[in-house]
Specification:
The chain has 692 residues and is mainly β. The chain has helices spanning 8-12, 29-32, 57-61, 125-128, 409-414, 467-471; strands at residues 44-48, 68-71, 77-80, 91-93, 96-97, 114-121, 135-141, 153-165, 169-179, 183-194, 210-224, 227-249, 254-276, 281-296, 298-301, 307-328, 331-352, 357-358, 366-385, 388-406, 431-446, 453-463, 489-502, 505-528, 534-558, 561-574, 579-580, 588-595, 600-610, 628-642, 645-655, 683-691. The two termini are 48 Å apart.
Length: 692
């Protein structure tokens, strides 16, 4: 099915657009309305996770209309905002960034004891630091609860979700807290287990199963009326496979795929928080974080002997973050400083089919080890004069990268895999780079009326290359060569927008343009190996642009019953040669009719219309996709004082009701993949959320 969406929709939002990420619009009247739940004028949305049954970060982000997902599998997928995935959308757990030096799966970190997720849109280097090129995701844990007396109280939750039909599996979690007026002890755990799913043709998608386990414990002790010390430990494990890596080896006559049997993370937090400190400063927070992660990336064969190659990557991240606020008349100042140090090591070994034994572990090609150390300082000022509001922010970051190179020059040169013209790129040099990065943003807006609140934002951000971009290479057949001379990527953005409410109608909108300098892209060098394979390399494009529109319209038909329509449009262009950038999502319209109630009956009927996407960059293995339409529905009921439980929420949903066969455009396929799986067909889910 091929759906072409009218360009009239684009014209509808040409007069409106997007807004300031750091604007404190709580003081603007439109925000007081219960109608407008998603206001783009803050360019930062907050998702309440406590009221949902979610198994992963992406599961929690699923219904944000401006968020897509760049998939490598159901487990290993990454948030995609304004034309960028993890390489332009940093992910933070509290103050700790997960993907500073690499882009491994961020779904390893569970949502078991999470309270909310903040989702940023647009360049936010001034607020969040390096890497926030097109957005960011910040995950925040629950605050400890204290009683007013010495008597201990117990509270907790129980979540369960069972999926069936095309996607069989379950998610469950349980947690409890014991607390009085001085201490809080909380324990929680969760797990999920999903089998291979089936597409709309009832064909099984091999290697799509995954399972996760997580454990979370925290302890907090009050040190004053408005202060406490806390510590937290989390452990997450995952076992998954990747259907998008299934590839047929013509020479040897078998299929291969990628297996991730033992991804694991252990994370520690220690911190102190106080509502108000000396000098009238508020929201003081100091936090130490430490994470140790292990990632597997093994190549398996669909053969009697399945072993082929095993690769692991270990990362250690530790640091400290301090933040504080200060209100001065019409000014609301926010100051934050962060130090972080991430180190990465790796190893690889291959299976010997003659001796039927594994070879010795060696450092994987690319880097033996690498580290990235950053010092970040940011200051933001929200200014309000009656109906006029400003936000000014500035950030400074010192970034230091040390890399021990492991480029296999002998394999390239001695075996003659690549032409002489490219030999100068094959160098093995350790790197010690130091960068001073400055980011700024400025926002201005004015509440003309509750029906029209326009704003303008200018911003920029910078990122250093990921290790695999600068050092990644394929010495076995020469199809990818390193580029140790990559420059930092920079972006300059402009957002123009307006929000408003007229009676029972409401809207929020966005129009944005992002100009990139030294955009990092995987390109075809124009040369081929001796085996006639195209040779690719990450390079800096002199100029690239990503622009688009976001729009949501709504109307309250009756009490608590709403009709809504949302629209997203994104385009990316390599301005060096006027060709499309890789992996840009097609335009999308979502229409819904729903009843929204915290307690009592809630329901939703939704139609999701996605355009075809033929503006592609074929050298990345990107494939054109057809448009499709999906019909989804859900119904739920919220109870209070349900037996022994304070609240209970039960829900049922059906997705892809018409059992359509389709493929999401951002599904990541390698340039040699001949197997591009479709998404799940009709699927049902039954969920329950209990609190006591």
């Amino acid at each position: 099915m091929k759906i072409k969406l009218s360009l009239i929709t684009i014209q509808m939002c040409a007069f409106v657009a997007f807004a300031a990420q750091n604007t404190k619009i709580e003081e603007i009247k439109i925000k007081d309305s219960t109608l407008l739940e998603e206001s783009l004028s803050s360019s930062k949305s907050t998702i309440n996770v406590e009221e949902k049954v979610v198994s992963s970060m992406n599961d929690a982000l699923d219904k944000e209309f401006y968020v897509e997902f760049k998939k490598s599998s159901s487990y290993a997928s990454e948030p995609y905002i304004r034309g960028r995935g993890n390489k332009g959308v940093p992910v933070f757990i509290e103050g700790m960034r997960l993907n500073a030096g690499h882009d491994d799966s961020t779904n390893l970190f569970s949502m078991t004891d999470v309270s909310e997720i903040e989702v940023y849109r647009g360049a936010n280097g001034a607020k969040l630091g390096m890497g926030a090129m097109s957005g960011a995701v910040v995950v925040k844990y629950k605050e400890p609860e204290f009683n007013s007396t010495q008597d201990f109280k117990v509270s907790g939750f129980l979540n369960g979700k069972y999926e069936f039909l095309s996607n069989d599996g379950y998610t469950s979690s349980i947690g409890t807290s014991l607390y009085n007026n001085l201490i809080n002890v909380s324990l929680s755990a969760g797990m999920s287990d999903f089998d291979n799913y089936e597409d709309g043709n009832s064909d099984e998608i091999l290697h799509s199963e995954y399972e996760t386990q997580n454990y979370n414990g925290s302890f907090a002790i009050k040190t004053g009326d408005d202060s406490y010390i806390y510590t937290r430990y989390t452990k997450d494990k995952a076992d998954s496979q990747d259907p998008y890596t299934r590839w047929f080896n013509v020479t040897n006559g078998f299929w291969t795929y990628t297996d991730r049997p033992n991804d694991e993370a252990k994370t520690y937090f220690i911190g102190y928080r106080e509502d108000e400190i000396a000098g009238g400063f508020t929201n003081f927070d100091v936090q130490y974080f430490n994470n140790r992660s292990h990632y597997d990336l093994n190549t398996k064969r669909e053969a009697t002997i399945s072993e082929q190659q095993e690769l692991f990557r270990n990362s250690t991240t530790e640091g400290i973050k301090i933040s504080v606020d200060k209100e001065l008349g019409n000014h609301y100042l926010s100051l934050a400083g962060t130090y972080s140090d991430m180190d990465i090591t790796n190893g690889v070994r291959s299976y010997n089919y003659n001796t039927k034994t594994w070879g010795s572990w060696m450092s994987a090609f690319g880097i033996t080890g690498g580290g990235i150390e950053t010092y970040n300082l940011s200051l933001a000022d929200d200014i309000h004069y009656d109906k006029l509001f400003f936000n000014l922010a500035a950030g400074y970051e010192y970034a230091k990268r040390d890399v021990t190179s492991n480029i296999n020059t002998n394999k390239y040169i001695n075996d003659g895999l690549i032409p002489t013209a490219l030999l100068g790129e094959i160098v093995k040099e350790n790197t010690n780079e130091k960068d001073n990065l400055v980011s700024l943003s400025a926002t201005v807006g004015y509440e003309v009326s509750t029906a029209f609140i326009p704003y303008l934002k200018l911003s920029n951000a910078t990122r250093t290359p990921y290790f695999n971009e600068q050092y990644g290479n394929n010495p076995s057949n020469g199809s990818q060569i390193p580029n140790q001379d990559l420059e930092n990527e920079k972006v300059y953005g402009i957002d123009i927008g307006a929000d408003g409410q007229i009676g029972k109608a409401y809207y929020t909108s966005a129009l944005y343009y992002q100009e990139y300098k030294d955009y990092i892209e995987l390109v075809n060098t124009g040369y081929k190996t001796t085996a006639n394979l195209p040779i690719k390399q990450f390079v800096n494009l002199d100029e690239a642009s990503i622009y688009g529109a976001e729009l949501m319209l709504g109307y309250e038909l009756f009490d608590d019953i709403y009709a809504e329509a949302s629209y997203t449009y994104t385009r990316g262009k390599n301005k060096d040669d006027n060709t499309p950038l890789a992996y840009i999502t097609p335009q999308k319209v979502t229409l819904s009719l729903s009843q929204k109630k915290a307690k009592g009956l809630s329901w939703r009927i939704e139609e999701e219309l996605v355009d075809n996407q033929d503006k592609i960059s074929s050298i990345n293995g990107e494939k054109a996709t057809s448009g499709y339409g999906l019909t989804n529905a859900s119904i739920g009921y919220g109870f209070t004082n349900f037996g022994i439980f304070k609240t209970a929420n039960i829900s049922f949903e059906l997705n892809n009701i018409l059992d359509k066969n389709y493929r999401e455009h951002l599904s990541k396929a390698s340039s040699t993949a001949y197997y591009l799986p479709n998404e799940a067909g009709i699927n049902g889910a039954l969920a329950i959320n209990l609190k006591f």
